[in-house]
Fold each of these.
Amino acid sequence: MTEQQIIETLATKVMGWYWIGDGRVNKLNGEEPTRWNPLQDITDAWMIAEKLYIGVLPQSPGSPDVMKFLAVFETHPYDRDIEVYAKTAQEAICKAALEAVA
């Protein structure tokens, strides 16, 4: 899956928004379509985390190039535990959300 496909899937399947294209989403509340990229922007990723009750925990101390994050669901709305490790918190959130809606 490309980065654009991941963002589109998260926008539509997780957030329930309409995908406009070129990285823009319509949040259905009368606002102008806005750019949204939870893979790069932690603020956008936290929107997903709040919606799906995902918690993120750092897993290794040290410099950012060796840091890993664990994303887990605080409540288990799915029939399985989902644990995802990634290099950034926003990447871990997005991977966990994708696995949940897959």
Amino acid sequence: MYYRNAQAAVVVYDVTKASSLEKAKSWVKELQRQANPNIVIALAGNKVDLVQPSASSPATPSSSESEDEADDATATPGETLAATDGGPESLRQVPREEAQAYATEAGLLFFETSAKTGEGIIDVFTEIAKKIPIEHILASTRGGTGPRNQGVTGGNGGPGGAVNLDANATKGKDACNC
């Protein structure tokens, strides 16, 4: 994981795999210990599309399909189990309340998302953007004092390896730009 000078981080776990939340907790500890003290961390439980009933799926099996005949060829691993023991919610191994409680205790933003359907993704980044102080954003876009921005004075190959992007802007009409 690379987090040097990061203003934010999104730590993602799989709501259908309890061990992934434990791993996410270790990444959060690492970030809290080593990263910028003002870093905004969001904890995102992914794959909620697998644990929520789909609006397009029928509530009961069709007349041509009996309850003990699941379409195993197109099922996601574990889906056939869900068809016989209580539906998609039974795939969930990480209760929302448990992850939410951890996020609150650790001072994290919390979301449940689906990378497949896009559910919750915009919310994650919108809320992160609201939490990053504007001073940090302005410092990183205007240049600040970091090593990448020292010595940028113009001229080709000047101090710090700076490059003047306007040096070749006055080429004659006969010059090729390709």
